[in-house]
Amino acid sequence: MGLHVIALLVASCALGAIVVGAIVSGGKGDLGNGLRYVILPKPTTSLRRVAAFMVLALAWSVFIALDYHEVTVPVRWLLYKILTVASVSHPASVSYVSNVDPLLYLLILGALLSLQITRAQSKFSLLAGAGIVAVYIVGAPVVTGTSLVLASLLFVPTGIVYFLFDLVTLMLGFASLMGLIFGTTFLPQRYRFSSKVSSLRGTALLVVIAIVVVVLAGASFHLIGSWFLKETPASGLIVFLLIPTLFSLFEVVLLLIRAKEQPGQAKGTLPAIDVIMPAFNEESAITDTIFSIDRAASVYGGVVRLFVADDGSTDRTVEVLHDLASRAQSLQVQVVLGRHGGKAVALNNALGATSAALVVRIDADILVDEQVFVNLPNWFANPGIGCVGAFDLPNPDLPAWYTKGRLFECLMTFGFTRLAYERLDGNNIPGTFMAFRREEAVAVGGFVEGMNGEDSDLTFNLGRLGLVSVIDRSIVIYEDVPQTFSAFIEQRTRWSRASFHVASRHFPGTANDVTPRYLVQLRFLFNKMSALMRPITYVSALIFFLLVPHGGFSPLRAVVLLAIGLLPQYVVLLAVTLYYGFWQELPFAVIWLPFTIVRKVGLLSGIFSLPPYRRSRYGEMLATAGVPVGMRHER
Fold first, then answer.
1. Would you say the pTM of this structure is higher than 0.70?
2. Which long-range contacts (CB under 8 A, 24 or more apart) does 74-79 make?
3. Which of 77, 298, 584, 593 lies at a 20 to 30 A Cα distance from 519?
């Protein structure tokens, strides 16, 4: 290996270090104590910014598609110069440069530029964000060019090289988007609690399986697709369209090679169960919820106590709760009063009133099946279990089409994806229904206050104690689904923002912190940030096929490209739907695509809701965050 190649490797590592440094710097501005309290400014969002981003991104895709050959000349020239400087004389090296497709690089650049231009800015985020974009503009060709040099020296087959080139480009884009967000916005600081166990073995296994699936399956799909589409630049989109399919293959492999964690065998009398529930202005929904819990308590047969923490409701919630307490037959209901402080504050108030070793959190708009408590004693008879979640389904009585879309999403999530990731303890349990050990939850700080994603955060924290989280498909609950566009987007904005909050708070500080759960969290972050690129990708593909003349166009090639990206996902969706007996819902599968599109608007809204970092004074920061006076000095 010559000095030029070594210099290229050093340059690639240096540019990569800048991006990683931007990611690691996340958590700026959080004035909490790194345990229970997070103190951040209130999030601000605007669908107008999301719309502006979409317009700008689509305009970029049109520009790239119509002037593709001219635009790619500088990128190809730079790649050629890198190979020349590295003194690579392997015959395949010329083929590498002439055949690799920089389209994905250009589309990711468009996403970075569009996000940087349209989001809310401070002086710091403007300068730091511009720096990240500049590093990607220079760094992506250098890093991918270095990968071509190494491939040439190792005599890697050209078909695999083209796929890996696009894959490296995509991963660099993902890292740059993370750097742009983590390095320039207000996010929670890292959680100050050391892991009690090592997760390196599970993490290594997860990484090895992912590499094998991505490289072998991805390269095979890429070869097939590029053979059909070899005369059009749209073939460069295949690797991006393939990612969801590769995730599904990866999840199938996990299901096949790892056994599910099993419950133990409870002995003696049934243990008491304390249920905690936050409530804020829930007078219309909470009656049905409590009656369903009451029926479940009757079927369970042991003591079930419900602690409802009122979060300063301004309607008749408290009055309704007292009435329900007198009417419940098997359920003991206690109302915990408090000032309005948010869901996590209410949850901690309720948790503080409990005494049972086993606690179940249930949201106030959830209907539970009567069997939900029956198997919990057996699960927690296994000392390695820390948290148990339910099989979430939407309330079938809700009429809006969002309900059908959510049904398919729940079947895919709780009936397939989460079951795969729990094989290596990579799950986060949603707060709609989560059973956990009280003593351990209190030991790690209870529910974090001041950020979104307090349920996922608790799952992470219990995992640091070596406790496993599982989904029990026999525990079925029916959740509320927003019935209007604005309510749906507001919910998805919170969920999207929660992913970034949790990822920042649990960013690995030591080797033990690099857990399968964090890698899965990155997989979900990728979903969020891919929403920044998909509009550009789809429009560019359409323009290439319809407006750019080339001899390789045919309807068959267009169908192949779409099939590679979409058909495998529909196959998995239909298979899961049939497996769980929802065959009567198959005609509504056409809703899945528009539902996914609307859902991605919410994902984008969550990204735009993260406030830009400002070097504010401490008092101004607290005032903006709306932090209660008693919490302000707990740092």
1. yes
2. 75/102, 75/105, 75/106, 75/141, 76/100, 76/102, 78/141, 78/145, 79/141, 79/144, 79/145, 79/148
3. 593
